[in-house]
Amino acid sequence: MVQKTQANGTSLFPYRVLDLSNQWGLFCGKILGDMGADVIKIEPPGGDPTRHIGPFYKNSNKPQESLFWFAFNNNKKSITLDIEKKEGLEILKSLVKTADFIIESFQPGYLAKLGLSYEDLSKINPRIIMVSISPFGQKGPFADYKATDLTVTALGLLLNECGERDRAPVQVGFPQTYGNAGADAAVGAMVAHYHRQLTGEGQQVDVSAMESVIWPATEVMPEFYILGVNSRRVGRAFVRPNGLQLPVIWECKDGYISFLLLGGGPGAKANRGLTELLIKDNMCPDYLAQKDWAAWDFDSTTPEQLELITKPFSEYFKKHTKAEIIEATLAKRVSCYTVTDAKDVVEEPQNQARNFWVNVEHDELKTTIAYAGPFAVFSEAPIKPYRRPALPGENNQEIYEKELGYDAQKIAALKSQKII
Q1: Residue 6 in this model has a pLDDT that exceeds 90
Q2: Are residues 70 and 148 in the same domain?
Q3: Where is pLDDT greater, at 222 or 353?
Q4: Which of 12, 277, 289, 362 could form a disulfide linkage to 37, CB 3.0–4.6 angstroms apart?
C-alpha cells in the first residue's frame, strides 16, 4: 500500500493523481490538489517547458520562478521522467498501478503511439481515470490541429463577444481556455470518480477546450436559434432595440466603474440618488436636477438627449476615485460597481472576509506569496493552497527510492541516461 501524506484539504485524500499535462491541463491538477489529492507533476528531465511562461518572480527569467507556473501548480509534487524512453515508459506504468487519476494534454493519439492509451493503462489498473484535455477533443475534423488560447477562443465563440460592437473583436487579456478547460476537466474527473465509486470502473474523460469556452458564451445562442441573427458585441455600451447606446463602463479618477442607467420606475430611485450626489458637488445642471426620472423612458429619448443626461454623470465620475464613488453610491443605494484591477481584488474586503487569499511559504525564495484560495468554502472538508509548487524533480527520491525501491546506483544510472 502506497503511503500518502495527508493534506490540509481532505476531500480527495488519499487519491493519487499523475499530472502529465501542459498549460491546457495544469489547472485541473491544481483543483484536485487543492482538494487534498496526492498530485504528482511528471516533468521531462530538466523541467516542464511550461515553466518558461512568464512573468517571473522579480523578473528573474528563471524557469523555476515562473509566476504562471506558480499559479497552476501549488499543492503538487514533482518528479522528472522521460516517458518516450523504454525504461521511462515502464516506470510510468509502475506508477499507474497505484494511481487513481491521470491528467494529460498531449495531441490526440500521442500516448497511444507510446502504448499509453486509456485502453493500455486500464489493463494495468482497471480503476484508472484518464482525463484528456486538448484544444478540440479526441475526435472530429479538428482533433489533430494544434492551437493556442487565441485560436481556440476565436473558434469557440468567446472572442466574437469581446470588444466594441463597431470594431473588430478584442482578445481577452488573460488566457481563458486553460482555466475553463481545466475546471471542466476537474468536474469531469469527479463525475467519473463517483461512477467508479458505484461500479468500480474507471473511464476516459475527453475535454475539448473549444467546447469549454463556448459554454460561457451560450447565452447568445437563443438569439441565433430563435431570430436567426448573430449577436453583436456589447462593448462599453448597452444597446437598446431602438439603437440608443447606454454607457455601461464609465471612466473615473483612478480607473473605471460600472453603472447602467435604467428608465421608468426601476431606475427612478437610482437615477435620483446619483443626481443628488451631483447636486452635492455642485455639478448638476438644472434640467437634470428637476428631471422626472419616473416618467423617463428610453424609447422616447434621442441620442442627443441621452448625451445631455450622461455628460454630467460622466464628469462626476471622472472627478472621483473608485472608492469614493462606491462609498457615495452605496449610501444612496445606487447599483454601481468597481471595475477592479489586481490591487483592488487583493484589498477587496469581501475577499478578505472569506480568507480568499492565502499566503504560501516559498522557502526557496525566502518569502511568502499570496495564492487564490478555494473555489468554494466547505464546512466539512476545507481546502486551501497549503504547499508551494515543487521544484523540478524535487520529489524524485521520495517516489523512486521510497516507493519504487530503487537504490542509489539505480537512480544515478537513470539520471545519467536522462530517463529521470
Answers
A1: no
A2: yes
A3: 353
A4: 12
